Amino acid sequence: MLLLPLSQTTNQNFDIHHRIMPGLTAPSDYSTDPPRHPSLQINSKEPFNAEPPRSALVSSYLTPADLFYKRNHGPVPIVDDIERYSVSLSGLVENPKQLFMNDIRKLPKYNVTATLQCAGNRRTAMSKTKTVKGVGWDVSAIGNAVWSGAKLADLLELVGIQKLTAIAQFKGKHVEFVSVDKCKEENGGPYKSSIPLIQATNPEADVLLAYEMNGEPLTRDHGYPLRVVVPGVIGARSVKWLEAINIIAEECQGFFMQKDYKMFPPSVNWDNINWSTRRPQMDFPVQCVICSLEDVSTIKPGKVKISGYAASGGGRGIERVDVSIDGGKTWIEASRSQKSGIPYITDDDNSDKWAWVLFEVTADILHSTEVIAKAVDSSANVQPEKVEDIWNLRGILNTSWHRIQVQVAD
């Protein structure tokens, strides 16, 4: 299928084109939402936000689509006609284009194993310190998958933006992703977000326009037919149900870039907050969670397997996972793996740099105690010991030591 040029000036025609030939539409209610796995813990029904049991996360390196956390802001969009579905590529470029799925599939296909994590993962634990605003996620707003599709860097070359470009010819510095998804935070407008142009045009950053997840077409909850995947960055930037890609001079001015997902100190509250004093959060920090035990677990005395996940943003690997079975007095180093039979080594060619690491250690637990896990990434970043030190009013980026209360039965 041919690439169709878009007019730079006739936005009216562009809107008419989309009304007549939408291909992908956003429903006004939740009656057409897809069915979901019965084991998911539902944190919000409308819009649907849910996470799997933590034990499911460590049962496999790749998270199945139906057990991958669901993070929605409105009713799930519907594909009316995949042949008519297209993405506009415009903004501060000389030759805007309209791209259909056939055009995107003709570009080289890449497979990138990457962990996506909601910035609100572990918010529930942070809210125990002091109430925060947001969906109450436990520890499973995270998942790991093989995403397949075209690299954004290849796509941008179609409108004349070369690889490793920081500023496009017409002073574009950022790439904005606009969804067909409508949400109340945008007053009924589309969900949108952006990343710096230098990241978008860097093939090594592995930013994808993904149409497959774990070798299958995307499911509706995960962005069918096309989504952005920005590895190493909070999930809010990996926009689903893509409708438009815009080259812009400044960061996206959408709600989720400017009035949300920013890291404030504990001293800031809703009375004195000034959103403009903080940059939008991008990379996620080093994170580590025990998944083989619940927050309060009763066990028999003896050997206990302690396993979970660890991940860091920005392509940083996991250098070490430490586990304590005496409340943090002494520590044992856990084994780390990504692929069975291949030892995980940080920054090794065999390691998936955007993906989580599964850890495991077996310890003798004879008395009731507190079990703790913490990770260190390849840049020697460590997790904060206390959640109070990183408490923030939106409850994002809770990466404090993960603590489990273990009661040993007689």
Automatic annotation (TrEMBL):
Residue ranges of every copy of the Oxidoreductase molybdopterin-binding domain listed in the record: 73-255
Q: What is its EC number?
A: 1.8.3.1
Q: Which SUPFAM superfamilies match?
A: E set domains (SSF81296), Oxidoreductase molybdopterin-binding domain (SSF56524)
Q: In which pathway does it act?
A: Energy metabolism; sulfur metabolism; Sulfur metabolism
| Record-linked CDD domains | eukary_SO_Moco
UniProt keyword annotations, A-Z:
Metal-binding, Molybdenum, Oxidoreductase
User: What is the protein name given in its UniProt record?
Assistant: Sulfite oxidase
